[in-house]
Specification:
single chain; about 220 residues; alpha+beta; Alpha-Beta Plaits; 5-stranded antiparallel β-sheet; about 25% strand
């Protein structure tokens, strides 16, 4: 009986030792203690507090549009500018001179030197193109090869097709414009504001509302 009792107490004592070791009472050996596990699980630097009352992210404003009204004399165009600004102060309204195409130039872009331009001219002669000249005047067009000046865009494009069939692939068309005695009024802003401001133009500006013009690139 005494031997059994001693064995029982030894078994209980051994279990207590194992429990104490598992709880880390004998140090941090093996990193298996409860304190070590809590340390590994909690990373305070990664905790972020989010308020439930944080304001929502504001919606992005709609993209701006531009409407151009053309064909008015400068004085009348200025009155239209003032009228539109009075309709909605948030619109950006400006006036510029109206430029209209006067001719269409068919040409080969400027070469890097006079020698290269002359070389290109010789190539044109070899394919029976003789109606051209090399631009000699200093400026952005120096050493370009002029192939023709046309009164209409259609005429310029038809000749460009003819050149293409002969093997000329580098020819281009450039529109030449001149300033007229008319003005363009441009209004930029949110689409709904533009539509509202232009909904009922006074009769003085009715002719401008029916004209078509493209807005200049925004600065």
């Amino acid at each position: 009986m005494q031997a059994l009792r001693a064995a029982f107490f030894l078994l209980v004592f051994g279990n207590l030792l194992l429990f104490a070791f598992g709880q880390g009472y004998f140090g941090q050996a093996g990193g298996s203690g409860e304190a070590e596990r809590l340390k590994n699980q909690i990373e305070p630097e990664k905790i972020r507090t989010v308020s439930r009352d944080a304001p929502p992210k504001p919606a992005e404003p709609p993209p701006e549009e531009c409407r151009a009204l053309t064909g008015l004399p400068p004085g009348q165009a200025q009155r239209l500018v003032e009228w539109l600004r009075g309709r909605d102060a948030q619109l950006r309204v400006n006036q510029r001179a109206l430029e209209e195409p006067t001719s269409w130039w068919v040409f080969i872009p400027p070469q890097q030197s006079k020698r290269q331009a002359e070389k290109k001219a010789d190539e044109l002669k070899k394919i029976s193109i003789a109606d051209f000249y090399v631009v000699q005047e200093s400026g952005p067009s120096q050493f370009a090869i002029s192939l023709g000046l046309f009164k209409t865009e259609q005429g310029a494009r038809e000749y460009l097709d003819v050149l293409g069939r002969k093997g000329v692939r580098s020819a281009r068309i450039q529109v030449r414009e001149s300033v007229t005695d008319k003005a363009v009024v441009e209004a930029r802003g949110a689409p709904d504001k533009l539509s509202k401001a232009l909904a009922d133009l006074p009769a003085d500006f009715a002719s401008a509302s029916a004209a078509a013009a493209e807005c200049a690139p925004a600065k």
